[in-house]
Amino acid sequence: MKVRFFQRLNTRLSLFPLFIILIVFIAGGIGFYVFGCSHFLKDFHKLHLINLSSDKKLIIDSWFQYYKTDLEDLSKSGRFRDSVAMLMRDGQKSSHGSSIKGRKAREALNDAQLNISEFFEEKISSKKYNVLCLLSMDGKVVSSSRNDLVGADWSDRTFLKEMALGLKSTAVAGFGADAGSDNSIEFITPVFDVHDNMTALLYASSKVDDLIGFLKKKNGVYKSEKIDLIDRDGNIILTGEGAYTKKIRYNIPEGSQNTVQYKDGIFFYVADLEQAPFRLIATIKKSEVARPFTILLIMYLSFTGVVILLLIIQNAYLAKRLITKPVSKLINAVKSVAAGDLSVDIGKDYKGEFLELKKSFESMIEELRNRESNLRENIRAKEQSRLRSMVFGKMSHELRNSLNTIVHGAGAILDTGADISPDNRRTLEEILSNGKNLLQLMNDLLDLSRLEEGKLAISQEEFNMCGLLKEIEDTARNVIGTKEIELIVDCQDVFLDKPVYTDRQRLKQILTNLVTNAVRSTEVGTVTVLCSDAVRNNVEYIEVSVADTGSGIEPEMMEMIFEEFSNYPTSFGLFISKKLTDALGGRINVESEPGKGSVFTVTIPIKAITYQ
């Protein structure tokens, strides 16, 4: 076959699939970009706004609750309440044209005034309050932390008109600037006498520095996100930057409570405070919400370009491959590596496509040598398990690529239908067979790596056990080949209609390894596979035994055959089988007599326990 024809054939076989893949990827990217914002990630920014508001609401409500509790504790203090009652009685007498007479009475009145001043001074010294005032029921300032406010008439204040009547506990009067103080939150607290009659009002103006700090955005998901404190009409009271000097108002539509809304280019969420007549509003600009989809589209198209580029490179690489002769040295090399000999010399007389095969095979052998050497050193080190899984994982991926090249190359030569001599065809078939055996070895290595890293997924699926044994039987007959071995496979009748729930692929891998091991250890004789069920501790099990009449196992090897690097010829396959059986929640046992054969018995639950 001429190279030119092979290139044309490979191009025709690859061009159409590449064209379809290109269309699918482009259509998928456009669809994701168009419908992503409204379908795939539509709730992310909403949940973020709700969570942001909820966190801030909890903190700010706690702040208001602290001040309410602090003021109520003060109003209920016995000494404070008695002092207030004394001042209020004196005020009432003064309004009726009488006053307290007697030196002791005046001293008691002075003590009362002094006690209230001490309470106020203590609160002011904590730097949490701007102003504290004691008001009579008619709105006059009886006592204050600021002397210039004593005697002032506050009867025209809004909070006295709206809140004083029927006030039972501390309430937030509002936000503003009182008596020349900075912007602050106003509290009003009723003071009751021993008979639960309201005798006075305690006014407090607190600093808002903490509230401003709560509203500041530190490390938000979105740069444009912010949260503000607003009143019931939507007017901004506080932001993370401080109080607004100008009146700015959010035009919040009705029915916007407890749901994320969109208006004027922003998404917003409004939450009522439980401890104050204010609300929190969290906002994000729509342009920033849509930004991740643009980034995802770019990443998606980049990934698409890389995939298409890899496919084109692969197509160009395969198009350059040649068909040539002789391959006997490659066959012997593959057999030697499959038997474990890594010192094989492949030779130099290679041309065309087999030159690439030679390079890949030499790279594989060199990698195997390096990995084996490193692996044996690492096994003796303290970090044995971690380093082994890393080496095996990387090795299996890299070697599988080289083996796939060998297998696909040999298969491609056989599938071309070219005029190949019978000897060369048998030679290529041997390459293909041994290459597949090496691929199975690489798959076992990959499974070992995944097992040790805890990444091997064990699934639970329903299947027929007798059907699985039929596949095992077909595989065994291919392995037997020309050997004089009688193969007996018996599936108990109970499994004809009874489904099994475990990982079919892993169970097949276990049994294939055991049957292959039995065939390899037997030159002439019988290999028997029996499947039955068993019940132990009210749990149903599958029990499969694989018996052979081969060479058997020496007693000193019995304890080492399931070890990873024992001297037993097929120990690695047995090691993988043992690991997979453990992963399925079962166990594997062996009985053997040198010169008479061996019996391997696998027992696993019919309904496997899976771990996610």
Describe the structure.
Among the domains are: 132 residues, Beta-Lactamase (2-Layer Sandwich); 133 residues, no CATH class; 145 residues, Heat Shock Protein 90. By secondary structure, it is an alpha+beta fold. Helix 10 packs antiparallel against helix 11. The chain has 15 helices and 18 strands. The chain has a 6-stranded antiparallel sheet with strand order 8-7-6-11-10-9. A 5-stranded antiparallel sheet has the order 2-1-5-4-3. The N terminus is likely disordered. The longest helix has 38 residues. Helices cover 51% and strands 20% of the residues. The protein is elongated, with a radius of gyration of 43 Å.
Strand content: 15-25%
In which order are the strands of the major sheet placed? 8-7-6-11-10-9
Class inferred from helices and paired strands: alpha+beta
Topology-level CATH name of the domain at 461-605:
Heat Shock Protein 90
Q: Give the overall average pLDDT.
A: 77
Shape: elongated
Briefly characterize the structure.
By secondary structure, this protein is of the alpha+beta class. The protein is built from 15 helices and 18 strands.
